Every structure is written in structure tokens, then in C-alpha cells.
Amino acid sequence: MEKADQIRIAAHAWDYAITLCIRTLPQGPECEALIACDQRPTISNIRAALAIGRGRPWLALIEAALIEIALAAIDDVLHEADRDHRD
User: What gap in Å lies between CA 14 and CA 41, rounded to an integer?
Assistant: First the structure.
């Protein structure tokens, strides 16, 4: 699979997961946290989404999307780490 395809799949997985999760929550702080995560997917916002998802059936969707994101990034991360270790 091409790198661009992996990135596209990861982005679609994230959009699908976070949108579906937002739709399942009533208005309130949890929903607002997921909306913030969708609009600005920072590490702290993603960690908040994972915390909110504990015990919820949609947590698996978020985790699966994050796995796709990790798979799309793994070559870059591991190659950079390998270069750092060789220097």
C-alpha cells in the first residue's frame, strides 16, 4: 500500500470514528471535548477522548482509528528513531 493511501485511510478512519462518537453523546462537556478533539487532534485532546470513552461501546472505534494513524506513521517514526540511535 502506498504511503498516501495509508494516510488517507487513517484520516478517514479518524473522521468516521470521532464523528460517530460525537453523535452518540448528548450536548455537554464530554461532547464538547470530542468536538475539540475533532477540530484540533492534539495529544492532550486525544487522551481526553480516550478517557471519555472508557466503558463506552464506541471506544473501540477511536482505538482502531488511532491504530490506522500509527500504521501510517510507523515508518517515519521508526526510521527517525533508528537514525537517532546510529548518530
Answer: 10
